[in-house]
Amino acid sequence: MFILGLTGSIGMGKSAAAARFRHNGVPVFDADQAVHDLYAGSAVKPIEAAFPGTTANGHVDRDKLSQALIAVPEKFARLEAIVHPLVRALEADFIQEHASQNVPLVVLEIPLLYETGFDKLIDAVAVVSAPAAIQAERVLARPGMTPQKLEQLIARQMPDEEKRRRADFVVDTGGTITHTESQVDKLIELLRARPGRAFERHWH
């Protein structure tokens, strides 16, 4: 089984690329969705303990948590220490499940892939990338997004140029969706036939 990491800065088109992988029958683990689920499950109690007043009715209030982090950015590390191990356990379950089914290719969609050192645990990394102006336009169109929030999010992420330099594959998402999908289709065709080594080394 070949394990591909899919990453890219906010607004670069990870969701569109992931959707194309799924369209072609490739299983995709969505780390953002996993966090969303954890915010309504096993992460609630430890987050409330670390950030009092940021949960209610068994859920993490993302707005309150975001405000707490904007006030004290140093606490990001504390949040990550709670969430990352929980996500890693879910990723391991995902990989084990599909390995048992002899699936040839799986994708782990992880926004902070390089930042968390996850590139060392997989076979290759595909980075989605678009010009900075397109990125800002996409992100600022999201509900509740502000230039301050965008600046904070980008500051926590490895620069796009560095991600592109380190990537095994780069998917250009600055053009049409058809162009993006065509690149993903070619990548799938290439990797489905390529043997992976990361599963035996890190996940078996």
Please outline the helices and strands.
Elements: E1 2-7, H1 14-23, E2 28-30, H2 31-38, H3 44-50, E3 55-56, E4 59-60, H4 62-71, H5 76-100, E5 105-109, E6 124-129, H6 132-140, H7 147-156, H8 160-166, E7 169-172, H9 177-191, H10 198-203
Parallel strand pairs: 1-5, 1-6, 2-5, 6-7
Antiparallel strand pairs: 3-4
Helix pairs in contact: 1-9, 2-5
Describe the structure.
It is a single chain. By secondary structure, the protein is α/β, with parallel strands linked by helices. It has helices at residues 14-23, 31-38, 44-50, 62-71, 76-100, 132-140, 147-156, 160-166, 177-191, 198-203, and strands at 2-7, 28-30, 55-56, 59-60, 105-109, 124-129, 169-172. The protein is 52% helix and 14% strand. It has a five-stranded parallel beta sheet, sandwiched between helices. A two-stranded antiparallel sheet has the order 3-4. The longest helix is centred in the middle third of the chain and has 25 residues, at 76-100. The N and C termini lie close together (11 Å).
Salient structural properties:
Rossmann fold; alpha/beta; 10 helices; 52% helix; 204 residues; two-stranded antiparallel ribbon
Identify low-pLDDT runs: none
Q: Mind telling me the CATH superfamily name?
A: P-loop containing nucleotide triphosphate hydrolases
**Tally of alpha and pi helices:** 10
Could you describe the largest sheet, including whether it forms a barrel? 5 strands, parallel
Helix content: 40-55%
Quote the beta fraction. 5-15%
Q: H/E element string?
A: EHEHHEEHHEEHHHEHH
Measure the end-to-end span: 11 Å
What is the highest CATH level, the class?
Alpha Beta
CATH topology tier name: Rossmann fold
Strand order of the largest sheet: 2-5-1-6-7
How many beta strands in the DSSP annotation?
Answer: 7
Q: Based on CA inertia axes, which overall geometry fits?
A: globular
